C-alpha cells in the first residue's frame, strides 16, 4: 500500500486528500488531516473519488488512445501519438495558411492544473498567435473577477476560510454552500455550534439546506439581488450604521453611490424583492453592526446578465461599513471548480493575461511577450466563451481545441453551440473520459490524464496553492495535459519560429510553473517567495513575495487597495430586471444548480452509480401549489418550453421553491435526458432551455433565469428497458440505449448500482405518443440481450403490451438481471424498484409477469446518506422511535442508531430537515 498526498478534483474548496494505491491501481482515498482547507474532512463526492479510477471505469469510460476520423460519420480509428500529432500539425498549419491564426479558438477548463493553463495560454497567444482562448470559468466566475477589479482594483478574494470561525455574522448570497461546498459548510456548522451567537443570513429564492440553517432567510424574487443590496445600503446610510471614517480614509466615489441608492428605500426594495420590509431592516442592522461580517457568494450572483453589478453592490456593503481587511470580515467569492482561481492567475481567459494583466494594455502585453520570449502577442482580448461559439457558428472561427470540458452539455443555447461544432472544419477534444456530448462532434480525441495521475498545482477559493501529485501513471497512452500541449507545440515551432529557441523546453511541470511564477513578480498575486519544494511541505496562500516567510491570509488590512489611488472604488449602479422577463405566455422562472453528490456534466461523478442514489433520475422541481395550479401530478411528463427550445421531463413537488419558480439540476445533459419534440427536433438536455444573455462587463451568461411555460404531453406508451452488466461493458450499453432514446419523444437514461459486485446497471425509460415501432423494440431487446433462451416472456397482442425478464442467481437469491416492458400507462412499472434495488424475486413467482403483483412493495425511499446507504424511510422510522427525546438529542440518537451523517457529513443538512419535518407530521 502506497499513500500519496494530493488535492481533490471537484469544487473550489481545495481539500487535501491522501490517495491509497497498490501498484498501478488507486484503491482508496481519505481526507488529509494536515491540509488547512479541510483538516481531513471530505464530502460525498471527494470520498468516492477513488471509485472513478477503478479498473472497470478505465476499461469502459476512459479514453486510452489517440483517435482520429476525417468525417464525423466515420468510425473512430485508434492511432499512436506520433501519427496523430503529425496529422494534427499538418491540419492546423493548413488551416492557418488558409484563414490566419485567429481561425483557431481554445476552450479550456477550471479543472486543468495551473501548469496546463500556462501551457495552453502560451501556445495560443505566444506561439500560434490567436487571442481566442477562454475557459469554462467564464460560466461561473467571470462576474466575480470583474466585480473585484472594479471595486478593489484586483481579482483577489481578500478573505480566508479561517474567517468563518472569526465572523459574528455570515451573509451567504446565491450559494447553497451545504451542497456546492460541503466541507466549507462543515466549518460553518462547527462555528455556529462553538459560538451560538453567530448570526447567519442566507439570500436565496429557494429554501435550500443552507437557508434552513440560517437565522434569517431572505427568499427574494429571482433576479432582484441588486435591489436588495441597495435597499440594505440605503438603510445603513439613513440609520447611521455606516463607517464614515473608513469611507473617507480608504474609498472614493461614495457620494455618487449614496445618491444612486437614495430612491431604493426599504419599502421599494421590499416591493421589488418580494420580501417583508422588516427583514431588510433586520439584515441591514446585522450586517452593519455586527463586530465582524463575512459574506460568501457564488453562482446565484455570478450567473446573471447583471452579475458584475450584483458583485459590486455586495462589495459596497462591506466598504460602507468597514467590514473588510479585518479578521472575520470581507466579501468572499467561492469558486466553483478546483482551479478556477489558478486559471485566472495564469491568464487562461480571453479577458486576462498572466499575473492579472490586461490584454487591452500595451504595457501588459509587452511584459508577457518578454517573459515568454516572443516578439509580440495578440493586441486585444479574445472572444469569450459564448462569443467563440457564435463566431464558429458564423464561420469566422474554423477550428476549436477543447480541453477537459463539455460545451455541448454546459453552455447555454445548445442549438447554437451544436451548430457551431458541426460547422467547424476541425474539432479537437482533449479529455480523460469518453462518451461526452462534445465527443460526437470531434474529429480528434486526445487522451488526457486525470485525478490521481497528474503532477502540478491548483489554487482554491482562499488563494491557497496546493500540490497535485500522481499516485499512479496514466492508463493506456493517456498523457498529462501540459505534455500534450508541449509535444504539439514542439512540432509547430519549426514552422512558426524557424531557427529560434524553443518556447516549450519543459520536461517537468515545475519548469512550466516557474515561468508562471515569474509572471507574478511585483504583481498583486506575487508568488516569487514560493517554490515547488516549499509547496511539497505545505500549501501556501498568495501573495507570498520573495523574502516572505509565508503567504498572506488576509488582504487590505492596511486599508490600501490595488487601485491607482490606493482607494477602493464606489461606482453607481442601477437595478435592472432580468434580461428575459416573465410573461403571460411564459410565466415561470427556471433556475439550474447542483445536486449534492454530482459534478458538472457527470463525466467523472457519473462513473460512480452510487452517486445517483439520492437523485436517480431527472426531475423538474415545482412548488406543490404550482404543481396543483398546473393540474399536474407527481412524476407526470411535461413539455418545458423556453424561447430557445423544448425539453420533456417528469415533474416533482419541491417545497423548497417559491411560486412561479422551477428548478432543474444542471447535470442532466443529452447523455441522460433526451428525446424529440412534436416537429421531430432533437432535445439536448437542460441547457437547451438556458438563455445566452450576458453580463455586459463580464460576458457571463444568465444561466440562473429563463422564462418557461409547462405543457402536459400525451405520451401514453411507456417503455422501460434495463440491465445489469459487467462494468467493462456498461458504457457500450449506455451508448446503445442513448442511440435508441434519441428516437423517443421522451427518454431518460440513468445508471444504478449493480446486482452483484463488478456490475453496473443502466436503465432506459422512453415515452411515445403511438405504439413503439417493432423494429425499435427489437433493437432494444438486442441491446439488453433479451433474445436468448431462458428469457421469461409475456405478450398481449391485442393491447400491444410486452414484458420480458431474465434472472440471475438461483433459488431465493435470484434477481432481475435484465427486463423490458412495453405498455400503455404504468402496467408493470412496479418491477422497476425490484431491478434498481436488486431485490430477490423468489417470493413473486409467476407474478413477475402480472400487471401488478399482490406482493409488490413500494420503491425504497431515496438514499440520504450516500456513504452508508441509509434511506429516508429508515431515518423517519428511527425519528418516530425517539420522538420523546429533547430536540437536541433526537438527531444524535438517529446517528447513534444508523450512523448516517457520521462519515463525510454531507447529509447532515438533510438529516436536520427530516428531523424537523417528521416530528411536525407526528405532532
UniProtKB/TrEMBL annotation:
- SUPFAM superfamilies, per database record: ADC-like (SSF50692), Formate dehydrogenase/DMSO reductase, domains 1-3 (SSF53706)
List, alphabetically, the Gene3D superfamilies matched: 2.40.40.20, 3.40.50.740, ADC-like domains (2.20.25.90), BFD-like [2Fe-2S]-binding domain (1.10.10.1100), Dimethylsulfoxide Reductase, domain 2 (3.40.228.10)
Q: Which UniProt keywords apply?
A: 4Fe-4S, Iron, Iron-sulfur, Metal-binding, Oxidoreductase
- Top-level taxon of origin: Bacteria
**CDD domains in UniProt:** MopB_Nitrate-R-NapA-like
> Cross-referenced Pfam families, in alphabetical order?
Fer2_BFD (PF04324), Molybdop_Fe4S4 (PF04879), Molybdopterin (PF00384), Molydop_binding (PF01568)
* 4Fe-4S Mo/W bis-MGD-type domain segment(s): 1-57
Q: What is this protein called?
A: Molybdopterin-dependent oxidoreductase
Q: What species does this protein belong to?
A: Roseateles subflavus
